[in-house]
Design goal:
The strands form 2 sheets. This protein has a 5-stranded mixed sheet. A two-stranded antiparallel ribbon has the order 1-2. A hairpin with a 5-residue loop joins strand 1 (74-79) and strand 2 (85-91). The chain has helices at residues 2-10, 15-25, 36-49, 55-69, 93-101, 142-145, 160-169, and strands at residues 74-79, 85-91, 105-111, 121-127, 133-138, 153-156, 174-177. By secondary structure, the chain is of the alpha/beta class.
Length: 179
């Protein structure tokens, strides 16, 4: 049923018609095996995972141009098994240089599902010698671009999965929670 829900959605069948088709095929809503709300949530979730046509390629082309201008520009893009963009990381050369000087304490801030694609976004922010916030990078596999240099301390949300990731990936980094 999940494949059909997604296929109908991609074909442009409105959500209410999509649900009605499933009801008819299962001989009534009582035989669906799930609530209509569950079907709507599934379709919404699958929509969030789909980028518009050419969006991922446009991002890749932009990053290639930036890397041609400056070889220290870093980016990494991951695709899932269906060829959809699942993770992206980019770091400007100035951010990499700033991290070499100011990697004592960083803040890891995640903003979930508020952008156009309803995908998580993470920013890594540090503080320079003037006490000003500086952007050090965006995304999750950021340490790879920083040549594996771990911060002395990190401030992050109280999300259990982030806590585990920080403990596993940066065991010698002091972790504190945002207030």
């Amino acid at each position: 049923m999940k494949r059909q829900l997604e296929a109908n959605d991609i074909a442009g069948i409105r959500p209410c018609k999509n649900m009605r088709i499933c009801e008819v095929q299962s001989s009534g809503p009582q035989n669906l095996g799930c609530l209509l709300r569950d079907c709507r949530n599934f379709v919404d979730q699958r929509r969030r995972l789909r980028l518009g046509d050419g969006d991922a390629e446009a991002i890749r082309q932009l990053f290639c141009r930036l890397q041609l201008k400056d070889e220290n520009f870093f980016y990494s893009m991951d695709l899932d098994q269906d060829g959809r963009l699942s993770n992206i990381l980019w770091i400007h050369p100035r951010c990499r240089a700033a991290y070499k000087e100011f990697h004592d304490v960083v803040s890891f801030d995640t903003t979930y599902l508020v952008n156009r694609y309803k995908m998580p976004f993470a920013s890594i922010v540090g503080v320079n010698h003037h006490g000003h916030s500086i952007l050090l990078g965006c995304a999750l596999n950021w340490l790879q671009a920083m040549n594996g240099v771990h911060p002395n301390a990190i401030i992050a949300d109280q999300c259990p999965s982030i806590n585990l990731a920080i403990r596993d990936v940066m065991p010698n980094t002091t972790h504190r929670y945002c207030i």
